[in-house]
Amino acid sequence: MNQVAEDWIAQQAQQREQEHRQRQRLCVERREPPFIHIENQTFIDFASNDYLGFSCHPAVIDAYRQAALHYGVGSGAAHLVNGHSEEHSQLEKDLAKLLQRDAVLLFSTGYMANLGMLGAFANKHSVFLEDKLNHASLIDAGQQSHAQFKRYAHNDLDSLEKRLQQSPDNMRKWIVTDGVFSMDGDLAPLPEMAALARDYQASLIVDDAHGMGVLGARGAGLVEQTALSQQQVPLLMGTLGKALGTFGAFVAGPSHWIEHIMQTARSYIYTTALPPSLAAAARASLSLLNKEPQHKHQLHTNIAYFRQSCRNAGLELLPSESAIQPLIIGDNAKTQALAAILKNRGFWVGAIRPPTVPQGTARLRITLSAAHQPKHITQLVEHLAAALNRY
């Protein structure tokens, strides 16, 4: 063993412990939204991204089971070899119809989708302008690409415009943003960003992973809610593992752009395709989104009820109309302690600390689900207010 490396690894571990940034994995024994079973205990789950509770819906599970019996468990190869099934093809068509985009390309994960999407358009003649609070996958994709990479202040249109003005006219300019920001829950000002993109001959790319299934009249996300066309948002990324309750991701856009990504994105070409059974499950979720709108309606009722309950209890939340409702604590140790208190009271809430969020903004990231009942929310707010009063 290399002693220099051993010493460095030990030093890094010690520093994480001192700064209360050490993370742990706990094995989930069972999920049945809104409950989660961990370490022989049952908790009300306020940390999951399963916003509509579709991951355990009987129709989704049955679609997965039937496809697995037909295709087997794995896809067997990459999409461009022989891993692309009829289920994949039909899911891409279903998503394109929902999103009102020409074409869709499936990826195995959201991280791979963002790496592939940005990488396909990156070279020395490109510049990516990214929000400082973008998801890590977008930041990594920009930093690792062959393009210039610059960041602008969070949701700050003036900061973005300055970056656009600083970019040479002969550069291909790409504005890249989350739709719903995963740690703050706030929304990008997409109409204003689309106007800036038009004025400065740039292209707007939106990662709507947390808007998909949650926002918009049909559940097509923030781009639908803001009524932006494919011309205004030529590339739209989303995931299947959050509100749709399955797994995987996609990029949607003009047919020739999607074809270019398929032909050049390394994270698409050089990996095994998503199992067909998961594509079938995602198709079932899309059907539920259309046929059973009560799930989305219930989610938004729960969001409103939670925010009102917090106001009544004197708890100050960040402005968010999404399912992500953060409570900023600031101190890492205090955030961990509050999460532990809630755990002891039967609530599972995420304690989010740097480097996932900026230094000094550690928080409890509370996520709402359509599966939550009013009593679950009432109890959480009561115990949360009581725990905060202890500090």
Q: Mind explaining what this structure looks like?
A:
The protein is α/β, with parallel strands linked by helices and 391 residues long. Helices cover 44% and strands 18% of the residues. It has helices at 3-18, 58-71, 79-83, 86-99, 110-119, 136-144, 157-166, 190-199, 222-225, 255-264, 266-269, 276-291, 294-313, 332-344, 374-389, and strands at residues 28-32, 35-38, 41-45, 103-107, 126-131, 148-152, 172-178, 202-207, 235-239, 249-253, 324-330, 347-348, 350-352, 362-367. A 7-stranded mixed sheet has the order 4-10-9-8-7-5-6, with helices on both faces. A 4-stranded mixed sheet has the order 1-2-3-12. β5 (126-131), α6 and β6 (148-152) form a beta-alpha-beta unit. It is globular, with a radius of gyration of 21 Å. It starts with a helix and ends with a helix. The mean pLDDT is 96.
Key features?
15 helices, alpha/beta, 391 residues, 7-stranded mixed beta sheet
Helix-strand blueprint:
Layout: H1 3-18, E1 28-32, E2 35-38, E3 41-45, H2 58-71, H3 79-83, H4 86-99, E4 103-107, H5 110-119, E5 126-131, H6 136-144, E6 148-152, H7 157-166, E7 172-178, H8 190-199, E8 202-207, H9 222-225, E9 235-239, E10 249-253, H10 255-264, H11 266-269, H12 276-291, H13 294-313, E11 324-330, H14 332-344, E12 347-348, E13 350-352, E14 362-367, H15 374-389
Parallel strand pairs: 3-12, 5-6, 5-7, 7-8, 8-9
Antiparallel strand pairs: 1-2, 2-3, 4-10, 9-10, 11-14, 13-14
Helix pairs in contact: 2-12, 4-12, 5-6, 13-15
